[in-house]
């Protein structure tokens, strides 16, 4: 890279970083949501069995 980086390059770099972070965060939140749904389903099954 040259010493004086133009604004467009820095913006492209930032956009790539932000898109990667958003992608990883979305995957993480989707996994957490699916795990919580499974947990809630197990809890409801246990409650139905008890009642």
From TrEMBL:
InterPro entries assigned: ATP8_metazoa
Keyword Ion transport belongs to the record: yes
GO biological process: proton motive force-driven ATP synthesis
Any one cellular-component term (Gene Ontology): proton-transporting ATP synthase complex
Localization of this protein: Mitochondrion membrane
Sorted UniProt keywords: CF(0), Hydrogen ion transport, Ion transport, Membrane, Mitochondrion, Transmembrane, Transmembrane helix, Transport
Membrane topology: Single-pass membrane protein
Main location: mitochondrion
GO MF entries: proton transmembrane transporter activity
Regions crossing the membrane: 6-29
Family according to the record: Belongs to the ATPase protein 8 family.
Subunit structure and binding partners: F-type ATPases have 2 components, CF(1) - the catalytic core - and CF(0) - the membrane proton channel.
Protein name: ATP synthase complex subunit 8
């Amino acid at each position: 890279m040259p010493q004086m980086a133009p604004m467009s390059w820095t913006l492209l770099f930032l956009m790539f970083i932000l898109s990667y972070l958003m992608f990883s965060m979305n995957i993480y939140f989707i996994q957490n949501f699916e795990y919580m749904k499974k947990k809630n389903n197990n809890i409801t099954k246990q409650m139905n069995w008890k009642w």
